[in-house]
Amino acid sequence: MAILRRDHGPLLAAGLLATLAGCAGQVPVPVRPEPIAYADTLPIEEPAYREPLEAPLLVRDAISGQVAKGISVRRLVNESHEALNVTRHDDVVNSSWFEHRNDQRRLTPDETFRGPTTGTGPDTTGPIVLTQAKLQGISPGFHIQDSRGVRYVVKFDPQGFQYLSSSAGVIANRLMYAAGFHVPEDYIFRFRREHITGVKEGATYQDAEFVEHPLGIELVDEILARVDTLPDGRFLAVASQYVPGPPLGPFHFSGTREDDPNDWYAHEHRRDLRGLYVVSSWVNHVDMRFANTMDAFVEPGFVRHYLIDFAASLGSGTIRPHNPREGAEYNFDFWPTMARMFTLGFYRQGWEREPYGVIDPSIGWMQVETFDPARWKANWPNEAFVNMTVRDGYWGAKLVGSFTDAQVRAAVRAGQLPNEFAADTLAAMLNYRRDRIVEYWYARVSPIEGPEVSQKREPGSGFTLTFEDYGIRDGAWASNGTSYAWSFRHPESGLKWEGNAAAAEGHRQVLSIGPGAGAMFADPTTPADGSLATLEITVSGRDRASGRSATVYLQWDGHGEMYRVVGLEH
Amino acid sequence: MRRLPRLKSADLTAALLALALSGSAVPSPARGQESPSVPADSVAATDTIPSGSVTPAEAQAIRDTLQRPPAQYSADWVDVVEFPLKVIGWPLDLVLVRLPAWLVGQITAPRPPSALMRTYRAMSEWGARPTIRSTIGPRSAAALELQFDRFYPFYVHAAVSRRLSQRYRTGLLLNGRTTWLAAEAKWQRDAQTPFYGIGSQTDADDRAFYRRDWWDVAARTGLTVTPSLIFAGGLAYEHNYVGDPIGTSQSIFNDFPTDSLYGANETTEYLRLELSGTLNLTRWRDFQQTGVTTGLAARSFFGLTGTDSDFRLLTGFFQTYLPINGQQMFAFRVASDISRDDGGEGVPFYHLSTLGGSRSALGFPSSRFVDYDMLSFMSEYRFEIWRELHSRMRAETFLFFHYGAVGETIGQIEGRDWHPSYGLGIRLSRPTSLMGLAYLGFSAEGMTAGIRGSWPF
Lengths: 570, 457
Prior knowledge:
With 570 residues, chain A is α+β, with helices and mostly antiparallel strands. Chain A has 14 helices and 19 strands. Chain A has a 6-stranded mixed beta sheet. In chain A, a hairpin with a 5-residue loop joins strand 2 (141-145) and strand 3 (151-156). In chain A, helix 6 packs across helix 12 (405-414). The longest helix of chain A is centred in the last third of the chain and has 25 residues, at 420-444. The two termini of chain A are 27 Å apart. The relative contact order of chain A is 0.13. Residues 1-25 and 518-523 of chain A have low confidence and may be disordered. Chain B is of the alpha+beta class. In chain B, 16% of the residues lie in helices and 47% in strands. Chain B has helices at residues 9-21, 56-65, 77-108, 115-126, 252-255; strands at 128-133, 143-148, 154-161, 166-175, 179-195, 208-226, 229-243, 268-285, 288-303, 309-323, 328-344, 353-355, 369-371, 373-387, 394-407, 418-430, 433-443, 446-452. A 16-stranded antiparallel beta sheet of chain B has the order 1-2-3-4-5-6-7-8-9-10-11-14-15-16-17-18. In chain B, strands 12-13 form a two-stranded antiparallel ribbon. In chain B, a hairpin with a 2-residue loop joins strand 6 and strand 7.
């Protein structure tokens, strides 16, 4: 039940809470309940498969969503809603949507290389049968089942651009997995025509008249006739293993799934989905939309939410290389279209002047020097991305910033690109984009993490706070030239301290919080047990503007006579 | 996370009150607080949820007891301010976005073809294809046409429009490598052809209509000298009858002295000789046309039987396309029609030159101005406003300014005979062809609007 104790009149506590509530627009950080890890994995009745029409959603998000965003009062007055599923430490818990991986325990390069895979892909030592035609998407392909009974969706590269979409899909798959999202097992699949020995009994396909026909092996030949071969005569594809459990259809980036009682938070207000914008921008996954997601009913009986099909990532536009427009403008971008109309065509976006040339047929084209982390756009808007706040962006940037060059190289290696030049170039591009993302989003906040009170002193005389500066850790800035302006307030006891400290070498920092010369404070009294205090820390640099301050919430423990960190907000 | 001490009741009340006023309720501390855990595998592992087998019903009971952040935001002052905007915006959103979105969904939804679609496909495969045409004659409006091509190169087409214009034709079309030969017999009814009088100073309010029923039996041939240079020629028999229009009582016979309008009160028969040549040096590239195209067509009419009238019609045009860059371009067109008496009663009024409509002046209705000669200058500025992701389609806005005149001869056209019109529209095109356009045109006489599946330039 209730959680506060006071020594000084009820109104002070109420006032603090009300102030905090007014500032946050919702329940204050140290007071609100915490999300519960895996609470959304409680068993439910199996939902039905559903696949609503995508076209109305795209039209709605592209037009009214964009108009609403442009005239939103909430945006204009900078009162955007923060995500709902956030912990007191400005993070998320593991769930059916996301699991902490690389950001909490850095994966080894080998683990990054393997990603979600548990095997080696379709088994070509035994018969492989065709099970289904691939009716969705624009790349050619089909569904197969190998001799172990494992089923895959097989998709091919466009002619003239071997490795383009298959490698991009696998590399982005590895990076998304390491970042924490649920993805299927994707493999680079090399095979000969003879490996596909037949058609699964009873397999059918629907023609344009929705009439069922028996599926024939000639479908394989028709598709392979349009695919380039490798020098040794084999075919190259990406084989995406079916997700475990019956598929339930895609998930929306807004609302909740009505037949899933575990789906508590509206998707457009989930930190993990909002922050996915930043990870998507890193790997240039412009096709991040409803149709490239999948809900699956997994053991022991809940819905897990997957991201699938990364063929339109990195430099690949699935059936051709990306062009400068992708990542810079929506497929139908309402405001730029209106701007062109009303300026008689003279309005030009930056991408329209961008020089463009395919770097290598196996990696296509991707923005590097002109990459702007805040202006990246998927092909279609979605509500979660539109609702992203600075804090959400920073959270996503932490996922991206956790990757080392070696991990990026390992993920690129999983794509099995045909030459070292392509692999080296792609890795360098990813590293560059990662660094730009980190520089941008970390500078919007004060990226302090893991604050701990490490030393107590006499009540009223201060304490020592240790924390990590992720900006230094992830290379956004150097410790030399970085400083921390801090402001401590403990209303109940009248304590008010302020100070400034230069960063020490390395990313682990120590601040001495206490009364300095000339500090203003009321006649110090012993704080009430359980009373709350706040410590605002602003990271500043010589050559950059300061971001928003981070607020560390502290609670006085009268028994241990020291403060404890109870919350963090960026 | 350590549990926090209890609040005394009075303090609790105050805290609850404060939080209620700020729109939030004091929550209970959640069960089982934890920091984000080390990476877990795919097995659902919790330290707060009971392990072991749990039925969905038991899970629901557990779920109901969970304390976690609320699933909705509390209302705040921004919601209050935005509320009237949402009230205003909701019907607009419904009509301008959600309804079109729903329509798009219905059109694009994969579903078994309806009985109508199956019938259409079956008929088309058999060789009798129904199709919709935006026009089959002057002011015909949209028409439904049945095209029977089962025994191609022999064909039979029958069309009826919304305004009851009709067109029935049958013929033969033989295509060779560089030549073609066509023979066709056609009967056409233009049910509501507008007429405002002859001359450049006619009044829009004087509009009346007439019906023209005409036979046309023709044999034509063509020669493709090069893909850019094409000549054609032909011989035809034409029979015309003019009567009261269909669907309106505003007849030229009531509003005009038709005795002075040759062709109004007479049935005419002509032998027609045709010759034409077109030089097309344009090419499509990435949604834009470049180059020039020009053409000249001459028709000589020789009166037959009781028709005391011989005359010539000459039509010429010149079009050029000047891209500024990949997104912006100009297009220019000059067109002229000349009609000359060669003897007898002269040119029947329905064969005189006209100004108005997509061929010559978009801001005016079709055939607005009539006289022996017509001269028109058409200019457009086109600029891209949207391109489909895979460059399969492009939308352009175009601004047009047209300047045209009619007169007894071109040399006699004076300043007051010129009629400007202007307007704007949107074109939708594929990389090498126009799909359609919609426009709004303005002139001193008002506004015109239309949707077209084709465009002369």
